[in-house]
């Protein structure tokens, strides 16, 4: 199994968030999700991520996953006996269209409809806007529910996961409702970048370049060195 490199982000005295990054690390990502030991996984993804990577977490779903001593295509009725969480999926539109009061309210209703408890885990799977709204959703559900970020765009991988900000856009204003909330961890599989269109890659690189220039020193040197690699 490919190793994921651990990364810790320290947000002053607010939180320290563990993260893990690797390439083609689907199996390890799934193990990280199961380590939380949730009774249910609420998988929230945007339409683009679902279209490109909808099968990424399929091994967690009934009839697909293979647990020790079991065979594939097991019956859903036997799923709970394996000690594995049930998975519920909700798809939001891509981009800022997902960051609305209506979508936030719909997420809350869905969570209660599918029987979410305080032991459930929310997984945000998609781009930066998706992580923003799902982070806010997690911060207010039961006054704080565990959430793991799984960014699928380059910009989200280095911009959103390095911030505790969550938000939606309300009444024509941008990011005017939100909170500061820490995920229990973030998981980055860099292989998702191979499916990004060029404009998404340049957007992510542009933000990296801006931050490298602002911080200077080793940050700028590291950015230049990374771009110089073949």
Explain the overall architecture.
The structure is a single chain. This protein is an alpha/beta fold and 230 residues long. The chain is built from 7 helices and 9 strands; from the N terminus they run ββαβαβαβαβαβββαα. The protein has helices at 26-35, 47-53, 101-113, 128-140, 154-160, 198-215, 217-228, and strands at residues 5-11, 15-22, 40-46, 86-92, 121-126, 146-151, 165-170, 173-180, 185-189. Strands 1-2-9-6-5-3-4 form a 7-stranded mixed beta sheet, with helices on both faces. Strands 7-8 form a two-stranded antiparallel sheet. The model is unreliable at 63-79 (pLDDT under 50).
Under CATH at level 1, the class of the largest domain stands as Alpha Beta
The total tally of domains equals 2
Could you name the CATH topology of the largest domain?
Rossmann fold
Given helix and strand content, the structural type is alpha/beta
Number of helices: 7
Pfam families: DHQ_synthase
Transmembrane segments: 121-142
Protein name: 3-dehydroquinate synthase N-terminal domain-containing protein
Keywords: Membrane, Metal-binding, NAD, Transmembrane, Transmembrane helix
